[in-house]
Amino acid sequence: MNICGMEKYSMVDYPDRIACTLFTLSCNFCCPFCQNSSLVFGANNNHFISIEEVLDYLNKRKKMLDAVCVSGGEPTLQADLIPFLKKIKDETGLLIKLDTNGSRPEVIEEILSLGLIDFIAMDIKNSPSSYGEIIGIDGYDPKDVIKSIELIKNSAIDYEFRTTLVKEFHSDENMEEIGKLLGNVKAYKLQKFEDRGSNIKEGLSPVPKKDAERFVGILKKYIENVSLRNYD
Ligand code: SF4
């Protein structure tokens, strides 16, 4: 596992729980709005946190924690993700959440079938016809992303799908297409984009609240539980 960041206590990474969040190195997408460019491009790769260090911390603090969130980068690219999740489950008993871009359905399927996670959050970057543009890969075929959506929808665990809204990329038409694609999923969050100065591309902007609220209205035709995040 190439773990290059650990947020020891997070109140926002696992719904209603206190989590320790782990950040894994590297990603197979290159979203212009990404706030973790150092993880995507590997600028942090001089300092890795060992599995032993992580487990030691979790075991010492598990009375104060409910959960572990494995995030990225894209965690499903890590060759030893599955044995790592098993270790966390067996040795700490904490809840586990996985954040993913959904590009590796075969890994998600194995993790789900082994019962290794309690919650999964998958990004829906945009509607299928606009996927390649928003992930920075010309001509990308989102078939793997669509397969992951189906796996997650049909799983027995809690989940959410989420989209970071970027003014330059998201339109009413995209929302209509996403609503049709997802159908009535358990939870879909539209998140506000933040320009923190560390994004892969400069000059992008958030979707204004009134437009984001209109997007919710469009999606409500397809999804009951759709809401905004970080728009207050
Ligand atoms: S936003 Fe997520 S999927 Fe996109 S490049 Fe960044 S880490 Fe990868």
Describe this structure in words.
The protein is an alpha/beta fold. The chain has one domain: Alpha-Beta Barrel (TIM Barrel), CATH 3.20.20.70. Helix content is 32%, strand content 23%. It contains 8 helices and 8 strands. The chain has helices at 37-41, 51-61, 81-92, 105-113, 131-135, 143-153, 172-182, 209-219, and strands at residues 3-14, 17-24, 67-71, 95-100, 119-123, 158-165, 188-192, 226-229. Strands 1-2-3-4-5-6-7-8 form an 8-stranded mixed β-sheet, covered by helices on one side. Strand 6, helix 7 (172-182) and strand 7 form a beta-alpha-beta unit. Helix 2 (51-61) runs parallel beside helix 3 (81-92), helix 4 packs parallel to helix 6 (143-153) and helix 7 runs parallel beside helix 8 (209-219). The longest helix has 12 residues, at 81-92. The radius of gyration is 17 Å and the shape is globular. The structure holds iron/sulfur cluster.
Largest sheet: 8 strands, mixed
Strand order of the largest sheet: 1-2-3-4-5-6-7-8
* Helix and strand element order: EEHHEHEHEHHEHEHE
Topology-level CATH name: TIM Barrel
What's the helix count?
8
The average pLDDT is 95
Task: Give a quick rundown of the structure.
This protein is of the alpha/beta class. Helices cover 32% and strands 23% of the residues.
Name the descriptors:
232 residues; alpha/beta; eight-stranded mixed beta sheet; 8 strands; binds iron/sulfur cluster
